[in-house]
Amino acid sequence: MFDWLIVGAGFAGSVLAERLATQRGDKVLVIDRREHIAGNAYDHLDEAGVLIHRYGPHIFHTNSEAVFNHLSKFTAWRPYEHRVLAEVISPTTGQLVQVPIPINLDTINTLYGLSLTEAEVEGWMEARAEKVDQIRTSEDVVVGKVGRELYEMFFRGYTRKQWALDPSELDKSVTARVPTRTNTDDRYFTDKFQAMPRDGYTAMFARMLDQPGITVRTGMDFAEARKRFSFRRVIWTGPVDEYFGFRYGKLPYRSLKFRHETLDREWALPTGTVNHPAEETPFTRVSEYKWITGQKHPKTSVTYEFPSAEGDPYYPIPRPENAALYKKYEALADAEQDTWFVGRLATYRYYNMDQVVGQALSTFERIQKVVPPASAN
Ligand code: FAD
Ligand code: UDP
């Protein structure tokens, strides 16, 4: 008899498993229907021996010291600040160029052949920005800041590919993830902590889960675990609609197909990721792992991301009708006895890894208040 069945060995499930086992002495069974731990953060050596991320590049960044300190119990870190270029057609030369995204001072000066200063570019952007009364959608956020030309160049095509929706149909929070800058800061993220687990994510998860009281079964789904094991409580980190048998209909999730390639040369890209916003290009971005992991290797591996309707659910789709449908599932989840819903799929939130860790740690605090530890029985 397990005290907990944890469905999903990603960040949500693994962080909670470790807390429950080590802080309460509970007996925990962690299952995942995939053949491995670490959820979407899973990394492994490919055939050439290059460390790659099976589900696309995962770059760790957070402003939360608590989250960073917590994960630091299970890994050392390699400092890494991600930089991204976008491949677009220059409106002045008609040539393909690679320029910094988030749009910054250098992006504007390069594209338009200008030499504006930080103060001047602010006025330049304001003159192009459209007046938007209420910023509601992912289109509003960008045209309200830099105007339609840059919006179309960098955001419209990329977003239409990634989500199969026009930015005007998506919540503002989606493109608001990518800021606009008037300085020359070309980092993708500005968080206080930016680092990669030194030995990779999977190694970090293995250490987290290697605790007395934790049993891990990969290649096993919830239906099978239910038949084979008994348990008192459940932590569910899969899609919330799946748990309830799609009672109110399917919650939309967006998927991706990954094309992993190893090249017989040392480097492939000028930076960790190159975005391809043009709508005619079927992929959205290509990433080269050695930039991100710091690995030295005579070959190099890259991953192309092709957005797709079919496949594993990777992205909840932030728009009002989906939020309304999720609310109905959330009400069922709140009423479900002895079951906690945690993580990106279970709470239908477009969360980064650190936010999921934070959510798992606060769920643990809630559990502490209402569930006596097994050792108290
Ligand atoms: P998951 O990692 O999805 O884990 C859930 C697990 O549950 C899965 O392994 C699944 O197999 C399992 N499961 C589901 N249903 C069942 C069932 N019925 N039975 C058994 N097992 C089940 N975040 C960042 O911070 N930085 C990044 O750079 C970044 N890049 C990303 C790139 C891509 C392409 C994607 C898709 C996501 C990225 N993220 C990034 C987000 C990050 O992947 C998530 O925030 C995080 O992995 C979510 O963890 P989770 O535990 O909620 O879910
Ligand atoms: N986006 C875009 N062009 C870019 C980068 C991002 O249009 O060059 C938009 C797009 O809608 C994307 C969203 O901003 O889905 C968030 O980008 P982010 O890089 O955070 O996406 P993730 O890494 O989560 O896939």
Automatic annotation (TrEMBL):
- Sorted alphabetically, which keywords does the UniProt record give? FAD, Flavoprotein, Isomerase
Q: Name one Pfam family in it.
A: NAD_binding_8
Residues annotated as domain UDP-galactopyranose mutase C-terminal: 154-350
State which Enzyme Commission number(s) the record gives: 5.4.99.9
Q: Would the keyword Chloroplast turn up in this protein's UniProt record?
A: no
Q: What GO terms are given for molecular function?
A: flavin adenine dinucleotide binding; UDP-galactopyranose mutase activity
The parts of the chain that form a coiled coil are none
Per the entry, which co-factors are needed? FAD
Keyword field contains Transmembrane = no
Which top EC class applies here?
Answer: isomerase
Which InterPro entries is this protein grouped with? UDP-GALP_mutase, UDP-GalPyranose_mutase_C
User: What's in the GO CC field?
Assistant: cytosol
- Would you identify the family this protein belongs to, as annotated? Belongs to the UDP-galactopyranose/dTDP-fucopyranose mutase family.
Query: What is this protein called in UniProt?
Result: UDP-galactopyranose mutase
Gene for this chain: glf
